[in-house]
Design a protein that fits this description.
Layout: H1 2-7, H2 10-75, H3 82-108, H4 115-140, H5 144-235, H6 250-276, H7 293-319, H8 334-365, H9 379-453, H10 458-535, H11 540-611, H12 619-672, H13 681-689, E1 690-692, E2 698-700
Antiparallel strand pairs: 1-2
Amino acid sequence: MIRIFKNLKVNKKISVVFAIFILLILFVGGVGIYNMSNIHGKVLKITEKDLHSLDLILQIDRDMQQALVAQRTMIFSNVGSESFTKLLKENDENIQQLGERWQQFKEISHVDIGSEIIEKFEHAKTKWIEISQRIVKARSSDTPEGRIEAIELSFREGTTSFENAREYINNITEILEKSSDKDSLESNDSYNFAVTVIVFGIILSIILSFVISRLVKSSIGKPIIQASEMMNELQKGKLNKRLKLDTEDEIGILAKSMDSFAETLQDISNKMYNISDGNFNISVNSLSAEDEISPALEKTRSTIQNLKNIIDYLTSSALEGKLKERGDSNKFNGGYYEIVKGINDMLDAVILPIEDGAAVLKEMTNGDLTTRVEGNYKGDHQIIKNSINTLAESFNQLLVQLSEVIQATASASNQITSSTEEMAAGSEEQSSQTSEVATAMEEMAATIEETTRNVIRTNEVAKDSKDLAIQGKVVIDSTINGMQKIETVVKQASEIIFELGQSSTQIGQIIKVINEIADQTNLLALNAAIEAARAGEHGRGFAVVADEVKKLAERTTVATNEIAGMITKIQQDSNNAVSAIKKGTDEVSKGMEEVTSAGESMKNIVESSDRVLELSSQVATTSEEQSTTVQQISRNIEQINSVAQESSSGIQQVANATNNLNSLAEQLQVMVAKYKLDNGTATSSFSKNHVINRKGVLVRS
């Protein structure tokens, strides 16, 4: 059943739903109308008959009461008076109304009161009316007897007949009330039945509405929601959702059309993916004569294929070195025209700075380091321009600094040579003086020994001893002067050699800077080689220049390493010389102390010579002390002579090292002279304010 409903057309589904609701409305409405009609009949019966009959009975009872009141009031009123007449009239009117209303009651009453009760009421009513007439007649006689008779009739027979009639009225009232209550109960039952049927109909309608809404939702609403979700997915570009409805209604047909449409879009999307992946060997078939998507896709594929052919042609031409070849942009329109034209402009823009850079690098390889790239470029081309100009400026500054270093090295070498010559002369003089001092000390020792052996002849040779002592003092003074000169020369040599070590250290730092520049140049050449490799065929010339720059950097590194080795050797020799000269200085200082001591001793000898005659007993002891002192002095002089010889040897080594340094400086000067350098103000400013960092980029210091 549900399957049949789902396969119905949408208009039939809607018609079925409306038909079911109409039937429910007719059923509930019919039941309600039927019961409302019953209730209306009951209400009319109650209001128009039961209530009216009851009202007539109540009015009859009231008429009887009013007539009774009028009769009894009339009994005690004066006959012929206005009130009597009025009371008489009221009595007659009430009795007349009683009869009329009773007649109306019998005509409209549908309640089965019973003929017995009616007959009894009519009999009681008739009897009471007769008694009432007899009361009126007796009182109208206007006699005491008539009044007494009227009173007796009213309060005896009249009361009895009145109460009988009223009892029957009460019976009739009860019957009418029971009939009205019965009709009210029947009306209430009809109302309850109608409410029950209506509530049942409403509940049934709600249940059927829920069931039908579920059926409609599952057959119409849910597919429409799924279709809406699918359209949202399609709007977002997601093409893999399918409805897969198997119903035969309009929604099922629409779902199948949407699935087919999604399949078509996904097929077109796959073809576009193939085109985006570079697969142009796909077939794009028209779906119909009115198809507008497939021709547009085929045109896109064909245009991209032609664009690829142009790019392949330009690529192969570039690989073959045909850098002048360009694509025909007139074969394309719009953005594709701009792409081909942009590629042509890009090739022109790429080749121009490379040609300018190659020309500058060629001039650099020929030795001209003053040439620069002058073109106005932007972006990476500006970086290439700045890199080449920075490279040229760096090489120029490197060679200028190297030239200055060479000159400073040559000057330092000349100074070292001059200092070593002076040190050599001082060493020779020191050696000569120490030899003389040694000879003099030997003579002094012999003299002292002779003095010791000839103590007996002290008085005789005292004068000679004094002369010899004076001569010894002169010789010792000369020795002190010579030792002071030796000490001065040794200190100067130590300072010069220390300065030589400092200069060689500075040269080593300069060589380190040159090594860093060579490393940065090598890194710059490596970056240039990488950029040339990225440029492919267009970067071959730049790669050759980068290779030459790399080789030049390697040769510079080798040369600076050799210089660094030599400088290290010079530093070691200088340090050795400084150590040796320091040691000689210490020994000279000790010799100075000993010679000074000897001078003081000789002074004492001279003074002792004056007292020799008086102190002859002490000559032997003094002579022994002098002999020991002279021996110590002789040993110190021999040590000084040995130190002087070592200093002379170290000075000779320093001289040889400075000669080697001069030779290297001359070789570097010859190498630098091959290049044309810019020594102007701009170059000096560049060297002071710019350096090259470890990544090969020119920065301000």
